[in-house]
Amino acid sequence: MSRGTAIGRTPETYPFGFDIGRDRIAFLSLRREQFAEASFLDARVLAPGAERWNAAWPEVAAAISAAGLRERCGYIFHIGHVGSTLLSRLLGAHPRVFALREPLLLRTFAELRSPRAGAGPADGAGGEASARAEPAHEERLSGCLKLLSRTFAPTDLAILKATSFVAEIAAALLERPASPKALLMYVSPQSYLATILGGPNSRQEAKLLLGARVARLRRRAGPEAGPLDADSSSEGEALALTWACETAALAQAARVAGGRALRLDFDGFLAAPEAHLARVLRHFDLAADAAAVSAILAGPDMGRYSKAPEYAYDAALRRDVLAAARLANGAEIRRGLAWLERMAGNYPPVREALAFAVSPLP
């Protein structure tokens, strides 16, 4: 099979990255078991000696057309650190699911549409409008989604677990003619703040991404909104802003998709995993009786840290970590919650995020 034919036929020719300037796709040869093992389908999946090559967009587009590929995938969108990798692994244990975790291509398209840190509302909105209107952008987005929709069997479903900030374009992806379904994962503000404050790596990541999230939240609010009043010296307020930014993106996606989007509070999932996993499988039109759901949950995933399965981690350990974080960082958590309450009065995205998180699940 030639490389051009393989592009259109098999997911083993994984579209690793999109070089926008040179208008070409970087492909990586991956076996089925490598997809199952990978927590991240970005630079971390590269291995010494891996077969890689580039193909110009016209060649890729021709292969997609010749194979008659369609956009046919589901999504997991989330706010970060809310069990999305675990759910992806559990879904991937179903015989009809091809689980892809954090494809780099989705991040590239999200970055194209997201406002720059420090950009004003008009700058961010204009950039997004330009990206939406650009025919070449649409052609490449559609083509990349078709490539990511390929599966090893025609009856299988590719479910793409996005990076958290890809939620910024979740609504746009769910508006597409293919009418995809999505799982929207979150936790309450209290749980989120404790989660991030309980891990030094999570805290550092939040600091690095804060500027972009401020810009995104301002853009979402629009020029008529008042100032985004946050005390830069308060980690609790910064994390509350982070939660609001990502959750507001999920709220917009839920409005756009209606019944095609299923909300899942991760704390609720951990309290009743059998019921919630069955509900998620049904949402994606995947058959699974009680015995099948129990078999998936009895596998190794519920007792391992999903992003690094070599480490043990379960619901009980998570409860202990959160309890310790609440004890050590109670003042900052209270400051963050107070910020959300204060900002909800005059900042629509914050208000929408809170309404999304507290509305009863169906």
Topology summary:
Elements lengths: L2 H7 L3 E7 L4 E6 L2 H6 L14 E5 H11 L5 E6 L5 H9 L4 E5 L2 H10 L7 H13 L1 H14 L8 E5 L8 H5 L7 E5 L2 H9 L2 H22 L13 H23 L3 E5 H6 L1 H11 L6 H8 L17 H14 L1 H15 L3 H11 L4
Parallel strand pairs: 4-6, 4-7, 5-6, 7-8
Antiparallel strand pairs: 1-2, 2-3
Helix pairs in contact: 1-3, 3-7, 6-10, 9-11, 9-15, 10-11, 11-16, 11-17, 13-14, 16-17
Question: What's the gist of this structure?
Answer:
By secondary structure, the protein is α/β, with parallel strands linked by helices. It has helices at residues 3-9, 32-37, 57-67, 84-92, 104-113, 121-133, 135-148, 170-174, 189-197, 200-221, 235-257, 266-271, 273-283, 290-297, 315-328, 330-344, 348-358; strands at 13-19, 24-29, 52-56, 73-78, 97-101, 157-161, 182-186, 261-265.
What do you see in this structure?
The chain is an alpha/beta fold and 362 residues long. It folds into two domains: 1-69, no CATH class; 71-358, 3-Layer(aba) Sandwich (Rossmann fold). It is 54% helix and 12% strand. The chain contains 17 helices and eight strands. The protein has helices at 3-9, 32-37, 57-67, 84-92, 104-113, 121-133, 135-148, 170-174, 189-197, 200-221, 235-257, 266-271, 273-283, 290-297, 315-328, 330-344, 348-358, and strands spanning 13-19, 24-29, 52-56, 73-78, 97-101, 157-161, 182-186, 261-265. It has a five-stranded parallel β-sheet with strand order 5-6-4-7-8, with helices on both faces. Strands 1-2-3 form a three-stranded antiparallel β-sheet. α1 crosses α3 and α3 (57-67) crosses α7 (135-148). The longest helix is centred in the last third of the chain and has 23 residues, at 235-257. It is globular, with a radius of gyration of 20 Å.
